[in-house]
Q: What sequence folds into this?
């Protein structure tokens, strides 16, 4: 007799026990959102033994653990977040160039970091809402003295729904601790390794230790991780020549080697020239191994997987820059100082640590978490916008309070991320921190609070080009101002349609190389701003750059312009002029291929210098 167990129906063992004499279909919710069918073969009743009965009971116990996914971890794009990354420390025993600024980072005082008890409490809270995978990161998690014990405590959450307990390590101090970590519940491991050359290893990490990392990888293979993953950040001119050497690692070892596109973080000197897009690596792969095959990825996989036939392992490409996977993102992050980040590249954070230490009940903490998740954006910005935006250094996806603004919350004001949810009984917690790198956020919030409470709004702001007494337009007098170094970065895009986009990509436009011509036109536009815009001051510009980025998913050209000068007034208008003229040039050169083009989203992304200092636009424009 055969009993098939499917999704969403009767869950109780009594029903199964009383119906062994006939075929039944029982639907259950397995693995939250996945379509998964478990087939259980059962002998006829007269031959059913205790082993079969125990197997049935174990399966039912597994089924009964499954809980409906909680809305607190579902965003407005219906992405269910089941994966939580917890940074345990900002300390690291390496100094990788792409991760930590050369000058180092200022360490956060220990009392401002999450304690082990706070980490366990938050992990348990997230697991209760549907998180089934937790990854421990850093810094380097193995430098934490209680790492083995902490993994043991987190391993106790598996009966509550946690399925995967993972760790990302640089491998330096891992080998000796690994057996006990596995015993305590660690069942997935990523080891970072960017070169197989000892000399280059020392250049990249500013430390020695390649042999210890390779020993840790071999030890992980011996412990039957399925499989150990090796993370390799590819940087042009540094280690891109070793790509095939890493592929060869998978010939005789059951490794999953993942090649990560170089990403911009504060202090790592990212530039497009250092980025090696995965399509370029794929071409190299197929030139060497023409029979390499793409594998089927899980919907939430960040890696595009490939295997060379006959090899023991596989490789993958993590394409955050050239082909983002935001649409299936299921990841949340907690930094070592207790801030919740809903996006790696986002710079708005919520301090869960302060909620814990202000003795906020779990139910109310969940409201904060739910509102943060609910306001997660559809996708992160393009690569040039990411490069221009402020974000923590990679090592400090743990702390960095100098980057964030402390906001005093009003108990009468809703959560400051435009959430429709309201906080309850919040009058005791006015000093919790909501962080953003957007400098004007605090002022905007104050204005919003005033709107909601019918208070008087500060009306001191005036238009600088209007004479307050006569109402006539005039040029701002900057005679008494002192020159300072000023910069501005602007961005915009031209949606040109499939036909024109293909012609631009293949450089087959009748009028010639549109991107090169538009770049020159943008530079000219910046220099002619004072002629085009009547009240702008003529400035002696010291540098102008105009970059183009092809956006395959929109059939669009993204334009980024940066302008610099030593002067008495800002260069925002020059940057905007550069983008605008470049966009118009692309329009002009492509109009024979279609006139339905759209120029959109022209805006300032960043300005520095002058009395007002640094200002950044942290909110990518979303399609409505």
A:
């Amino acid at each position: 007799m055969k009993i098939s167990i499917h999704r969403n129906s009767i869950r109780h063992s009594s029903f199964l026990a009383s119906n062994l004499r006939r075929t039944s279909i029982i639907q259950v919710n397995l693995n939250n959102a996945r379509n998964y069918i478990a087939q259980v073969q059962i002998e006829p009743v007269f031959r059913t033994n205790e082993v079969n009965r125990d197997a049935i009971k174990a399966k039912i116990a597994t089924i009964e653990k499954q809980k409906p996914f909680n809305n607190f971890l579902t965003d407005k794009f219906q992405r269910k977040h089941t994966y939580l990354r917890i940074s345990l420390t900002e300390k690291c025993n390496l100094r990788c160039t792409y991760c930590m600024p050369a000058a180092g980072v200022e360490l956060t005082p220990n009392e401002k970091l999450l304690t082990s008890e706070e980490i366990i409490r938050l992990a348990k809270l997230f697991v209760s809402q549907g998180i089934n995978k937790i990854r421990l990161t850093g810094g380097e998690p193995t430098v934490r003295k209680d790492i083995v014990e902490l993994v043991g405590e987190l391993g106790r959450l598996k009966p509550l729904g946690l399925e995967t307990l993972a760790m990302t390590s640089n491998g330096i101090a891992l080998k000796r601790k690994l057996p006990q970590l596995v015993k305590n519940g660690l069942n997935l491991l990523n080891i970072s390794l960017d070169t197989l050359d000892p000399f280059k290893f020392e250049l990249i990490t500013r430390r020695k230790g390649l042999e210890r990392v390779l020993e840790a990888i071999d030890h992980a293979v011996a412990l039957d991780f399925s499989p150990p993953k090796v993370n390799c950040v590819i940087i042009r001119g540094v280690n891109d020549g070793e790509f095939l050497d890493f592929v060869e690692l998978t010939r005789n070892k059951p490794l999953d080697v993942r090649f990560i596109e170089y990403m911009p973080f504060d202090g790592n000197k990212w530039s497009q020239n250092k980025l090696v897009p995965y399509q370029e690596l794929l071409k190299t792969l197929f030139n060497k191994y023409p029979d390499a095959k793409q594998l089927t990825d899980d919907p939430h996989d960040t890696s595009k997987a490939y295997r060379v036939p006959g090899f023991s392992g596989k490789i993958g490409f993590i394409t955050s820059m050239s082909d983002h996977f935001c649409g299936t993102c299921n990841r949340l992050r907690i930094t070592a100082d207790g801030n919740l980040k809903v996006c790696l590249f986002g710079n708005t954070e919520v301090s869960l640590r302060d909620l814990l230490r202000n003795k906020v009940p779990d139910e109310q903490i969940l409201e904060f978490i739910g509102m943060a998740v609910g306001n997660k954006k559809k996708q992160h910005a393009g690569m040039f916008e990411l490069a221009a935006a402020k974000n923590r250094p990679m090592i400090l996806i743990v702390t960095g309070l100098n980057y964030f603004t402390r906001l005093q919350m009003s108990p009468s004001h809703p959560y400051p991320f435009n959430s429709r949810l309201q906080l309850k009984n919040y009058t005791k917690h006015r000093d919790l921190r909501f962080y953003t790198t957007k400098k004007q956020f605090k002022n905007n919030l104050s204005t919003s609070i005033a709107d909601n409470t019918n208070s008087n709004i500060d009306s001191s702001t005036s238009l600088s080009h209007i004479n307050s007494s006569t109402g006539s337009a005039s040029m701002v007098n900057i005679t008494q101002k002192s020159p300072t170094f000023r910069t501005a970065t602007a961005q915009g895009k031209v949606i040109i349609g499939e036909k024109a986009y293909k012609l631009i990509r293949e450089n087959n436009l009748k009028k010639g190389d549109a991107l090169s011509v538009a770049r020159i036109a943008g530079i000219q536009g910046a220099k002619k701003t004072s002629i085009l815009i009547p009240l702008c001051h003529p400035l002696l510009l010291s540098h102008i750059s105009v970059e183009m980025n092809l956006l395959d998913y929109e059939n669009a050209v993204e334009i980024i312009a940066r302008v610099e000068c030593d002067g008495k007034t800002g260069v925002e208008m020059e940057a905007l002029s550069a983008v605008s003229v470049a966009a118009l040039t692309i329009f002009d050169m492509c109009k024979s291929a279609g006139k339905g083009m759209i120029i959109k989203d022209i805006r300032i992304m960043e300005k520095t210098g002058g009395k007002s200092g640094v200002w950044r636009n942290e909110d990518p424009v979303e399609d409505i």
About this structure: The two ends are 55 Å apart (CA to CA). The first strand starts at residue 2 and ends at 6.
